[in-house]
Amino acid sequence: MLIVIEGIDGSGKSTQLALLKSRLTADGFVYHALDFPRYGRPGGQLAKLYLQGAFGKKPGDVNPYAASSFFSVDRISSYLEDWRGIYEQGTLIVSDRYTTSNATHHGSKFPPERREAFFSWLFTFEYELLGLPKPDLTILLDIPSDAVQELLSGRGEGKDIHERDTDYLRLCRESALQAAALYGWRRVGCIGGDGRLRSENDIHEEIYRYIREIIC
Ligand code: ADP
User: 192: which residues sit within 8 A by CB, 6+ positions away?
Assistant: First the structure.
C-alpha cells in the first residue's frame, strides 16, 4: 500500500511525515518512508539541477513535460533500486511527495482548462508506462500561498526557484486543488475555522484518521 503526503512548498509535508512515522511506529505498524526529490542520489540530479536554476531561473523557463520527466526519472530509479521488492510484498509505503508533485508543480504552468490533459499524460506516463505504483491514498495539505511565505521565510537564501516565486506557489495550490477534485485526493485544510494556522498535532490527527481508515 502506498500513501502520499502532498502539498505546495512549506505546507508542512515533512513535519507531518515525521509525526506520521512516530505514530505508525508507536502503534506497531511496519512501514517504509520515502522522500522526493532525492537530491543526494544519482537519479535525483536532473531534478536538483532544474531546482537550482541550471536550465532557467524561472519555473516557466523549462517545458513542463521536460521538467516533469526529471522528477519521474528520480521516482522510477528509486522504485527499482530501493522499494519495489518490499512494496510487492505488501509493506506499507509512506511518501513525502510523489507523482502528485508533478501535477501540483508542473500542472501550475498551464491555464486551468489545459491542466486535465497534462494530468492525464502524467498519470498515464508514470503509473501505466513506467510502471510506478499508484497511490492508494493521497493527502493534500492545503494552505494559501501567502500563509506559506511566512513559514518559508526562515529558509532565506536556501530557497529554490519554486520557493522564491509567490505567484508560482499560488498557481501550484490551484493546480493541486484541481487535481484533488479530479482524482479523489483527501484535502486537509491547514487553516482552521478561526482563520489561523492549525496546530501540527491537530492536522496530524485528521491525517491519521484518514490513514487508519485504509490500513486497519
Ligand atoms: P514542507 O515539507 O511542505 O516544505 P515543512 O514541514 O518543512 O514543509 O514546514 C515548513 C515550515 O513550517 C517548517 O519550519 C515547519 O516547522 C513549519 N510548520 C509546519 N507545519 C506547521 C504548523 N501546523 N504550525 C506551525 N508551523 C508549522
Answer: 198, 202
